[in-house]
């Protein structure tokens, strides 16, 4: 809802990739106000948005999925973005809606980000099929880790520049021009891995609709923790291929996650491993057997893994792994969000900015909180089953 | 008589290719340790069953390829075409774009009805190109969405439309620790539906084939291609031509009909498994010699102990002495040691096959009491060797071998069902909890029936 970012893209090296008729901009932005993004710009641009969506959809032989990419803390991405979710659900009910949402980190400088995030969460709960939460702190930590290795100059740690998960070698832009570019590149790699099996051949393909099918056991519980490995490839070819197993171990280490959470000490509902490159089913099985004992799975899905093998690795690597976990470890993130929200809301701070927007009622805030609380409660109930033994459900008995 | 193969989904198509390739390669093994005339009769019989001729002389597989996304079919078609030895029919495939999302309900309730006409037309066209149809061989996995759901749908339609032809479903049982999280649901839905509409279920477990690759074939980094090739070898050993029992001079005409007649005497018992011996990597084959007594002894023990391969056979297991009362009530959920059979078929190929002594398989103690061994056991043979094996034996068995895996599968699916996890993914495409309960009921019945078999 402001022109700067879109204009830059249109003047940049990727200008020919984007259809200049397929964009909508305004002038003043949403002022970091969810209500402005959702209610004002939502109603203002609804027709235009629908028209452009329909046009894009017409070009598809078979439309399977929408990727909605936005931040939670601002006004446009958060407000208009979640407004769009509802539009998509009504207009294209059969098409999946995958949301990559960047959650505000602790040092977020937008004061109203807890409000925006909370209001957006309700929409994500109700209208998204699958959400991949990301936070800037994790992305930043990954960058720091890479910088450490690149600059350490230790023997045997020369990193292949093309292989950095933050690298844009192989893309069109030559240098990272802005501070967030390297961090965003990581998210771009996430989306690439997610769609790799749909774009390339492999011995065990996986489509996007399979992600939703396998990783969302109950409609509300559709938040997935993602982790990417490797972050870089060492140039030294003498390093033996123990690297392959190391890649699997890394996927379950916090250093590689795109969100701050602790899945190892929480409960797994489901887990997917999306493997690219020269990796075979025996490698996959060996590593699942190896890593499984340390992980806690919910009682009704003790052995549930979704796996896929795509033959083509990402640029600069011989293999890579994206792990997606539906795990109760997202609960603390949501609880913190609720905390920060309540701190502001109790004092009614900045509330008037929202309430003065046409169509915005105070009840919206209460509803958003209760929606999030219900979600947290579901995670609580699952966590409570964690240390309990697997219940013995009596089977149907058959008369002989 | 000819067999029309229907390949469904990624698994079905990847395996189908390997099967046709194995069959064709075997026919090209000349002269197969037998006379030239013998070999030619063998080749002709195989070709009639599985291939048809095209103008430029390249044999065309009698197959229909179905998948709900294009990548695998394209690969399969081009792999076959590139080989220059055989190929698939140009218009023999049906393809969509969006896949089935590992969702049985989507495959069965959405894709099925939507594409019924196109798929059945394709099959009809292939059937018309057969002089005489023995039946259908349907290759599918249970774990995914297309093979499982659409496979169940297609089998049902085949039963409606070709009620006098036989259908055998080659089913791939997924790895126990997942390939797909909802595989247990997809599996029970598939098995229960196929039990009603198919004539026989030939089952291969990924876990078992994987072990064969690791222990028998000594493959270090096992790929799906490796699994599929082992499987294709086993199937080739079963389906390649053999002689009629009565020592007649022509190859059997109706492989499917014969298989059904010998192995599925009762519709309650349709699950068949295959054991194959020897099975090893080519490197070792050159240094090994085999005798019929040795091979048959191992094969018999594999049957009795429920082993899925040669290595690690439990020689302690013995059949119960006939005449003596069974040791305590056999409970389904206990560890079953001795594997009781309903019917067995042994297929022998290669050198000195006429000297092979299969008396050990006629022991009544191996079988359930309601069939005489003379009806329960049959043997087919041919002096023509299979692939690179001077002697090879296959055992197709209708026995308790699959009870334990089935029991475990039902248990896990039931556990998940009790929590209602993932059910919304199925009900959104028109299924109901009732459908699940029906499937569970049918399969519990199958488990109980097989479990209660005793001498």
From TrEMBL, chain A:
Query: Per the record, what is one GO cellular component?
Result: microtubule
GO terms for MF:
GTP binding
* Keywords for the protein's UniProt record, in alphabetical order: Cytoplasm, Cytoskeleton, GTP-binding, Microtubule, Nucleotide-binding, Phosphoprotein
A Pfam family matched in the record:
Tubulin
Q: Does the keyword Membrane apply?
A: no
Which coarse location class describes where this protein primarily resides?
A: cytoplasm
Question: Boundaries of each Tubulin/FtsZ GTPase domain copy?
Answer: 1-202
**What does the record list as coiled-coil region(s)?**
none
Query: Where found, per UniProt?
Result: Cytoplasm, Cytoskeleton
Q: What InterPro entries does the annotation carry?
A: Epsilon_tubulin, Tub_FtsZ_C, Tubulin, Tubulin/FtsZ_2-layer-sand-dom, Tubulin/FtsZ_GTPase_sf, Tubulin_C, Tubulin_CS, Tubulin_FtsZ_GTPase
Q: Is Nucleotide-binding there in the keyword field?
A: yes
Q: Which domain of life does the protein's organism represent?
A: Eukaryota
BP GO annotations: microtubule-based process
Domain (Tubulin/FtsZ 2-layer sandwich): residue spans on this chain? 204-339
UniProt lists the family membership as follows: Belongs to the tubulin family.
Q: What is this protein called?
A: Tubulin epsilon chain isoform X3
What is the gene called?
Tube1
UniProtKB/TrEMBL annotation, chain B:
GO cellular component entries: centriole; cilium; cytosol; microtubule; nucleoplasm
Q: Which SMART domains does the record match to this protein?
A: Tubulin
Gene Ontology terms for molecular function: GTP binding; structural constituent of cytoskeleton
Keywords (alphabetical) are: Cell projection, Cilium biogenesis/degradation, Cytoplasm, Cytoskeleton, GTP-binding, Microtubule, Nucleotide-binding, Nucleus, Phosphoprotein
GO BP annotations, alphabetical order: cell projection organization; microtubule-based process; positive regulation of smoothened signaling pathway
Q: Which SUPFAM superfamilies match?
A: Tubulin C-terminal domain-like, Tubulin nucleotide-binding domain-like
Q: Where in the cell is it found?
A: Cell projection, Cilium; Cytoplasm, Cytoskeleton, Microtubule organizing center, Centrosome, Centriole; Nucleus
InterPro entries attached to this UniProt entry? Delta_tubulin, Tub_FtsZ_C, Tubulin, Tubulin/FtsZ_GTPase_sf, Tubulin_C, Tubulin_CS, Tubulin_FtsZ_GTPase
Oligomer status and interactors: Found in a complex with TEDC1, TEDC2, TUBE1 and TUBD1.
The name this protein carries in UniProt is Tubulin delta chain
